Amino acid sequence: MNQDSPHLPVWKSLLLGGYYRASLPYRWWRQAAAIAEHRVPIVVLFYHRIADDGATSWTMSNRCFERQVRWMADRFDLVSLAEAQRRIRDGENTRPAVAITFDDGYAENCHRAIPLLVKEGIPCTYFVVLHNVLRQEPFLHDVARGHRFLPNSVEQLRAMATAGVEIGGHTYSHAELGPIDDEDDLYREIVMAGRELQQVIETPVRYFAFPFGQYESLSGRAFEIAREAGYRAVCSAYGGYNVPGDDPFHIQRIHADEGMIRLKNRLTIDPRMSRTGRFTWNPSNGGTQVVKDRVS
Fold it and tell me: Which of 32, 37, 119, 150 has its CA 20 to 30 A from that of 59?
């Protein structure tokens, strides 16, 4: 068993470690060039559940989470989503930067993970599914695997907001929005869910994250509805770097996995991730496309 990353086979961990070390000269060169051009990519990570039972592949141990946070704090600017968006919009960034986000909203995150971030003054954006918060029902993707983890309560979200955590919308029902054509359904999942969340936590909800967040989970119309509703930005989850000068309304995010080697690979301009296609849309005609990222 791989003690550093129980969900990652030992052979794969060794392979990724070898790849990381072999590609370090390339990474250093790319970063130096990006710094010189003031176009250092901004990485936005997303976590789900921080707990010590290893129950799912989207569960990370508290020890690993703290280790990742400490490692990042020593090497990167840990910034809010608003600051990440500002650097993208301004078209200039000279320091490696990471923004931390969470999806879904698990009660266990309030045991140690969120208190750690609050104590260290590290910004965080926390996206929650409204239905599960209000009904206190477990997420269906967990139930399907025999788990009934509690979602965050309204009181927990209010306490987090008071402590400085940005609370964001993640739909009403954790629906995959890409295949949805019905305007009323999209409006309910994106707009009404955000407005109701804002009412119950008594704090502005300024950001929205697509459930699943893969290319097929996105649509141009969903982007338009979110923009028209007044969200500052929307977040995908298919991976990819945010290059200064890109569209600041669409923030690409990278999944944070248990262990350190994948984090090190992904946060230091991984040559493989530099080729991630960026989802874009044209508001004038609703057209969408995937184009190659522009990483210096």
Answer: 119
- What is the count of structural domains for the chain? 1
Measure the N-to-C terminal CA separation of the chain; round to a whole number of Å: 38
**Residue 60 falls inside a structural domain:** yes
Cβ pair 126, 46 in contact under 8 A? no
What are the Cα distances from residue 257, in Å, to 15, 47, 254?
Answer: 16, 8, 9
Q: What is the CATH number of the domain that holds 125?
A: 3.20.20.370
**pTM for this model (two decimals):** 0.94
Contact call for residues 58 and 45 (beta carbons, < 8 A): no
pLDDT for position 286: 57
Residue 53 is assigned to a structural domain of this protein: yes
Question: Is 145 within the bounds of a domain?
Answer: yes
| Distance between CA atoms of residues 255 and 54, nearest Å | 16
User: Structure tokens of 9?
Assistant: 């086979």
154 vs 139: CA distance, rounded Å: 16
Report pLDDT for 4: 63
- Angle (nearest 5°) at CA 116 between 124 and 107: 75
d(CA 48, CA 104): 7
Q: Which amino acid is at 10?
A: V
Residues spanned by the domain of 92: 10-274
Q: How far apart are CA 233 and CA 249, in angstroms?
A: 4
**Looking at this protein, which amino acid is placed at residue 29?**
W
**Side chain identity at 268, as an amino acid letter?**
T
pLDDT digits (tens, 9 = 90+) for 183-215: 999 999 999 999 999 999 999 999 999 999 999
Q: Is residue 102 part of a domain?
A: yes
Cβ contact 173:156 at 8 Å? no
Q: List, in sequence order, every residue forming a beta bridge with 207; answer none if it has no partner.
A: 233
Q: Is residue 129 within 8 Å of 170, Cβ to Cβ?
A: yes
